[in-house]
Write a structure and sequence with these properties.
By secondary structure, the chain is α+β, with helices and mostly antiparallel strands. 48% of the residues lie in helices and 17% in strands.
Length: 272
């Protein structure tokens, strides 16, 4: 299951949609960062739920990646800007008779709650794990191949051999001040993904291109393929247009080759 599938369980236009595969392409840096962090959060939650030592090791590595990401990039500031923009957009729909006012109010309230939390003076995402001695020992060694072996970081070996409940509790503590970032990202991406009406499209000789309407706001291009498809899309895009090229790769040892047949696929241009 892909990150996009976890993030938005929209009904596919293909039959047997449970087997569909979703490909997504962000069209701006803010959404690109959101999708990358969403990917890391899925890995963290899977690792915490796994319960075994290797799952815990992988989850810790992903938490450190998120922490480093938050240091390098002003994610909190970007999320605040995106929430403020979306709240303004939704508020402009209040006088639209085709909009369900109860759903609209609930959506705005959810965004406003997260926004207030992010703007709070005590909101310091990632501070807990950055100030943790064990986590910092692992951070110093994790970029070295095999650098977190038991003889390199015995304190990590000791922690990994603790009771699974202890490991899970510690990881939840490390994640406490990061969860607001995760909540904001999940909310933003869910609203963006749900904004579009998917349609069927055809890539002639494996190639599809579409111009954006001047008034359109597209943040994510989503392509859905049936699970049994023998090819995959590569999506690229900018401010004015996007393209989708379909490739086949019979063996991982060979380069992908663009298909020459027409390819039918599900397409959605998502944006608020």
């Amino acid at each position: 299951m892909t990150d996009g599938e976890r993030g938005a369980r929209q009904a596919s236009l293909f039959p047997d949609s449970g087997a569909s595969v979703i490909y997504e392409q962000p069209l701006n840096e803010r959404i690109r960062n959101c999708l990358r962090l969403e990917h890391l959060f899925h890995g963290i939650d899977t690792g915490i739920e796994g319960g075994d030592q290797w799952s815990a090791r992988n989850a810790l590595g992903r938490i450190l990646e998120v922490s480093d990401f938050l240091v390098r990039t002003d994610i909190k500031g970007e999320l605040i800007k995106e929430l403020e923009r979306e709240i303004s957009t939704f508020n402009s729909l209040r006088n639209n008779p085709s909009v369900n006012s109860a759903v609209l109010d609930k959506t705005i309230a959810s965004m406003s709650e997260v926004l207030v939390h992010l703007k709070g003076p005590d909101c310091q995402p990632g501070a807990r794990i950055r100030n943790d001695e064990l986590a910092n020992q692992v951070r110093q060694r994790i970029s070295i191949p095999g650098g977190t072996c038991s003889f390199d970081v015995p304190s990590l070996h000791f922690w990994l051999n603790a009771q699974p409940s202890q490991r899970s509790s510690q990881m939840m503590v490390w994640m406490q001040d990061i969860r607001i970032i995760e909540k904001a990202i999940r909310l933003i991406l869910a609203l963006i993904r749900e904004s579009a009406n998917p349609r069927m499209a055809v890539a002639n000789a494996g190639f599809y291109q579409q111009q954006f309407e001047s008034a359109a706001q597209c943040q994510i291009v989503r392509v859905v393929m049936p699970g049994e498809a023998e090819n995959f899309p590569e999506i690229s895009g900018g401010k004015h247009r996007f393209t989708v090229r379909f490739y086949s790769q019979r063996q991982t040892s060979t380069r992908p080759v663009q298909v020459q047949d027409d390819v039918r696929f599900e397409l959605a241009c998502c944006g608020i």
